[in-house]
Write a structure and sequence with these properties.
It is built from 18 helices and 18 strands. With about 475 residues, the protein is an alpha+beta fold.
């Protein structure tokens, strides 16, 4: 986004003004989380003139204080710069009683028992994905797993077509990491239009999925309006299609460079929950916004009513005053709350789902590919934004027969699983005579092997038993 530069308010002390763009935090391309934490070398709250001017919390104490003060800091403005949205995201943009009643609509579907009902299916998908690309000795983790497994689970929960996954992901990516205001607005309009159509279908034929639960829900004894149903449903989609994928990518980038950490997880399988919490502490992804409801002093400086504060969750997990040697993964740390999912009444509703999916990733990946590394031929670039992320993560490993590219399988006319469409039963029949030249005509548009010229055009047809051959 082309950030709007604003002059700082006169009340801001000069030594707290730092000209930093949340979309390009210095050092963020190398380590997004460390880059956010590095902004707090002197103060826990700094001011930037970017995105029309806002504060940034840069240590764990300030982040937690603001999260736990919903009477002083509202959630009404979710994004920076503060621009009007087509509809209000519910319950994200609500406070107090209104937030509680709308949060009660979605919480039951995200409680541990409800989330666990998807675990078997999620585990099977994870296994199918990993075993699909394991023989090749390489994958592009973001496209081949991170944008498939958690997004597929979410689509099961809301009963949306799996073939819509790539389209939905593109919209959410543009909404959370878009570089221009136009791109963000177009993505939001597309999401609202899509969800509006799906809600109309549910009204005509409701089911047991979360969207149907939203339609049937009541607040304060009345049914939700169509606008309220839409805002609640779009929030579910936006939250479920990006953050877990980003977290998985950061964690796998770390594990690819730290074999001792991988070894500990494999040698201590009963401690996978401990490993999950510690890895997520180190790699916070969400950067949320709060707006002061009145003049309030924080970190020795006055934040005035109406001013916005950006809360990078990762700075809590990387605060050395809370976690000794915070950049290191230490599975012997004393358990405690981290800022990964925020604090207070707006704490992330999907935390249980994220934990379940992260545990499955660690268990099923490391049991099959214990030793892997970043492919040095391709760059890994971190991004800072409303949701920190990694665009591509090329990984490689040795197989029993040595490392072989996907093109090797294509040359032999062998069949292999298609993991980019997230259909576990999908099989590809590879025709060596038809090489993909224009990826716009290839359904595997996210496949990194295709981008490198090593993938092949395939013929897809659906049989009576639902398999795609």
């Amino acid at each position: 986004m082309n950030s709007t530069v604003a002059l700082p308010q006169e009340q801001v002390p000069a030594d707290r003004i730092v000209d930093v763009d949340m979309l390009a935090v210095p050092g963020g391309a190398q380590d997004a989380q460390k880059a956010w934490r590095a902004l707090g070398s002197k103060y826990g709250l700094i001011w930037t003139p970017r995105q029309k001017g806002h504060w940034i919390a840069t240590n764990g104490a300030v982040v937690e204080q603001i999260y736990r003060s919903p009477d002083l800091f509202s959630s009404s403005v979710p994004n920076l710069p503060p621009e009007p949205l087509p509809f209000k995201f519910r319950p994200l943009q609500l406070d107090g009683h209104e937030h509680r009643v709308f949060r009660a609509i979605i919480d039951p579907a995200l409680r541990p028992a409800a989330v666990q009902s998807y675990a078997v299916r999620a585990r099977k998908l994870a296994i199918d994905l990993i075993e699909g690309f394991w023989p090749t000795g390489e994958c592009e983790f973001v496209a081949d797993f991170a944008l498939v497994m958690p997004l597929s689970v979410f689509l099961w929960m809301v009963d949306l077509p799996m073939e819509d996954r790539a389209m939905l992901q593109r919209w959410v990516h543009a909404a959370t990491r878009g570089k221009t205001r136009q791109a963000i607005e177009e993505a939001n309009i597309s999401m609202f239009g899509y969800v509006s159509q799906r809600l109309a279908e549910r009204r005509a034929k409701p089911g047991d999925d979360i969207l149907s639960q939203v339609i049937r829900a009541e607040v304060d004894g009345r049914p939700l309006s169509e606008e309220e149903q839409l805002g609640t449903s779009v929030l579910l989609m936006a939250a479920g299609l990006d953050t877990v994928a980003a977290m998985m990518s950061f964690v796998m980038h770390y594990l690819a460079r730290h074999p001792a950490v991988r070894r500990w997880i494999m040698e201590n399988p009963s401690q996978v929950s401990v490993a999950t919490e510690e890895l997520m502490r180190r790699h916070g992804v969400a950067n949320n916004t709060r707006t002061a409801t009145q003049d309030v002093e924080i970190d020795g400086v006055m934040v005035h009513k109406g001013e916005h504060v950006l809360l990078p969750n990762c700075v809590h997990g990387l605060d050395e005053n809370l976690f000794p040697n915070p950049e290191e993964i230490d599975f012997t740390r004393k358990p405690g709350l981290t800022g990964t999912f925020g604090f207070g009444p707006h704490r992330c509703a999907g935390a249980n789902l994220a934990r379940m999916e992260m545990r499955i990733l660690l268990q099923e990946w490391l049991s099959r590919i214990p030793d892997f590394e970043v492919d040095p031929k391709y760059p890994v670039i971190h991004q800072t934004a409303q949701v920190n992320g990694i665009e591509t993560l090329p990984l490689r490993w040795e197989t029993e027969s040595g490392r072989r590219s996907r093109a090797d399988f294509a040359d032999q006319g062998r069949a292999g699983p298609c993991y980019s469409d997230a259909v576990p039963a999908m099989v590809l029949t590879i025709d060596p005579s038809s090489r993909v030249l224009d990826l716009r005509h290839c359904r595997c548009c996210h496949c990194p092997a295709a981008r490198r010229g090593g993938f092949w055009l395939v013929r897809l047809s659906t049989s009576s038993d639902g398999r795609t051959d």
